[in-house]
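Notebook entry, structure prediction.
Reason for the run: the old model in the group folder had no record of what sequence produced it. Starting over properly, with the input documented here first.
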Amino acid sequence: MMKKWLQQLMIISVAFVTLGVISPSHEIWDSLHEKENIKQPGLPESGSAYSVSFETTFERDPLPAASEDELISGARKLAYTKFGTKIGPAIGDEFDTVIFPEMERVIRDTFGEQFQMDRKLAISERPSGGHAEKIFNIKDAETDKNLLLFHVRTEKRPQDGYFFNFHYHVAADDYETHHTIGEVYWSKNTPPKWLS
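New structure, fully documented this time:
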């Protein structure tokens, strides 16, 4: 009775861990029941030998390529999505006049370089919320490899208050260097979380 219960628990656990690749009706369980009482030569009595091979390849559909203007309009839309209804109205004017023109220049320069290399570019779909930095990523549409990462970091400076530091990272240096775009002052009060 206990052995049967443990087998059922094992079958359900394997189905859950493999996300259904090995289901309770999979043929591996049939062979388990058949070999349950058969001794295999060269193996200890308590051991069993099973081999399972999976040849599953997952192919991802390439992202839809965006035109240069679609990347620019998508970047602005994602930035305001990240700002949310609390931060957006407070920093919108300064963002539009100081920060976004520099973001646009970087995107246009990258688009031109990648266009010459016959690469198609796409933009990520959602900025991160909370305290995370990501605004959006520009990526190769066919390989899904990030080329540019646009971030904003909240910095607290003693006596001065909070600033939003806009910067980007490039794939060429493994995203290590912060290429500063600019800063926008918030206030001495703690800013709300992103997307709020």
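Summary: Residues 68-116 form the longest helix (49 residues).
The old model has been moved to the deprecated folder.
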